[in-house]
């Protein structure tokens, strides 16, 4: 599958700056939180899944929750997570190609292991609201998005891959940033956040541009319909 305007590099274009969320170095990152790359995927998944309250996803920020008596540590860890959350949200608001997930490295093809690490967190967020993602898979306008991510989701099932599987993953990794922006737009539309939706649409997505959901159709004939 290919989209008009797809680039050879994860960064979308050589002048794109490093994602704001990637500027948050994992210094003093609490060891019981999800690893930073996985955390970015998880928080992104939360942002593109509608109808989630903080109580739905806060517990899964941790691999092991600190003792309740260590309030200072808990507050510091949550402050770091909130900063990442806000940074990713700001990145997404730029639209594509301004948004780049943290598995991207400017001017380079995406490393598949980095995408898998990021996707591990994203998939964790998807499982919070499986009914929504089932609807995404069942709608022909958005089902392509699931096709972009399945090759990076690790399972225990042994699958015989095609000889060109890694080439397909390269292509899908290039398309993911644009598709994630589309999923964020759909989540905002689902939640009735007109201001947030207009902000994203005003940045980069024209009605005659390829739809950011990854379908290959024009935006006006796909998610904007």
Automatic annotation (TrEMBL):
The name this protein goes by in its record: YecA family protein
Annotated source species: Novosphingobium mathurense
SUPFAM superfamilies for the chain: Sec-C motif (SSF103642), YgfB-like (SSF101327)
InterPro entries: SEC_C_motif, YgfB-like, YgfB-like_sf
Pfam families in UniProt: SEC-C, UPF0149
Residue ranges crossing the lipid bilayer per the database entry: none
């Amino acid at each position: 599958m290919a989209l008009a305007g797809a680039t050879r590099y994860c960064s979308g274009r050589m002048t794109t700056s490093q994602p704001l969320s990637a500027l948050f170095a994992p210094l003093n990152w609490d060891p019981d939180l999800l690893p930073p790359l996985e955390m970015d995927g998880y928080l992104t998944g939360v942002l593109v899944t509608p109808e989630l309250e903080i109580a739905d996803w806060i517990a899964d920020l941790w691999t092991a929750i600190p003792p309740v008596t260590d309030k200072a540590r808990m507050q510091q860890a949550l402050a770091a997570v909130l900063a990442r959350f806000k940074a990713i949200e700001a990145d997404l608001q730029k639209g594509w190609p301004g948004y780049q997930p943290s598995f991207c490295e400017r001017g380079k093809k995406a490393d598949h292991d980095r995408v898998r690490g990021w996707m591990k967190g994203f998939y964790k967020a998807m499982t919070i609201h499986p009914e929504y993602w089932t609807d995404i898979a069942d709608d022909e306008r958005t089902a392509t998005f699931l096709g972009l991510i399945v090759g990076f989701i690790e399972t225990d099932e042994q699958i015989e891959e095609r000889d060109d599987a890694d080439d397909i993953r390269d292509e899908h990794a290039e398309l993911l940033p644009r598709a994630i922006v589309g999923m964020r737009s759909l989540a905002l539309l689902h939640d009735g956040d007109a201001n947030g939706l207009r902000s994203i649409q005003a940045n980069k997505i024209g009605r005659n541009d390829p739809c950011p959901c990854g379908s290959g159709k024009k935006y006006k004939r796909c998610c904007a319909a």
